[in-house]
Amino acid sequence: MDGKGLAERVRAEVKEEVAALGRPVGLATVLVGDDQASAIYVRRKREACAEVGIESFHHELGAGTSEEELLGLVADLNADERVTGILVQLPLPGQIDEDRVIQAIDPVKDVDGFHPSNAGLLFQGQPTLVAATPSGIMAILAAYDVPLQGARALVIGRSNIVGKPIALLLLAEHATVTIAHSRTRGLDALAREADVLVAAVGRADTVTKDMVKPGATVIDVGINRVDGKLAGDVSPAVEEVAGLMTPVPGGVGPMTIASLLRNTVKAARYQSGALAFPGA
Length: 280
Ligand code: GUN
What we know:
Elements: H1 3-21, E1 26-32, H2 36-52, E2 55-61, H3 67-79, E3 85-88, H4 98-104, H5 116-123, H6 132-143, E4 152-156, H7 163-172, E5 176-180, H8 187-193, E6 196-199, E7 217-220, E8 224-226, E9 229-231, E10 244-245, H9 252-272
Parallel strand pairs: 1-2, 1-3, 4-5, 4-6, 6-7, 7-10
Antiparallel strand pairs: 8-9
Bound molecules: guanine.
């Protein structure tokens, strides 16, 4: 499944939407500490913003930044009218409580969809700003007409960023959803039943060829470094049995960024009153 090609089409659409909006759209990105992977992800997000005409306001804070300092920055960004979206890259250094920071972001600017208000609205079947990775996965599934109604879906991983929200989105499309995690017993048997399998654990070779039902759709969210090379959570040999599969790189990653851009435009619409914000 060509996430890269699909993301290019979404970015072209977003570019037109930004131009038609008639008001500036601005994304604040906040990077705390010196996690190399996070620095790369944030750079890609900012490059994508530039490409579609979204202004980016970037803030880099040192690894020793206190929670108060970060909360102060978030308060400033909440108050800044040029900033229509706020993204604090996770993970944060250990001295900072991530939940407190996420809760400090104005829900209408929460383009990650991590604020409890937005996460709760998704839980209740009223999606507002929905986390970018799960949104991107749903867009890939839709683009390839993957049947979800009544399908058996297995989500491996239960994070707030991917596992839980993708399970809710699949459920909303009437899939029969199972969430598996590190303590799940009998993962192989569960996996073999799945028509749609989403692997989001961050460990290479979590899903091997013998675990996949022939013809199943396999979504690989993992980004792992193995001997200096990029690997997903799914073994490459799974391609031989899967009906459809997302590659790493070029699958979920580019669609995550495209969905973030979509959310950033949606947030600007909420703030201009063009769209009613249920979380207000
Ligand atoms: N870290 C890993 N994925 C994400 C994401 O989608 N958003 C943010 N803010 N941090 C992340």
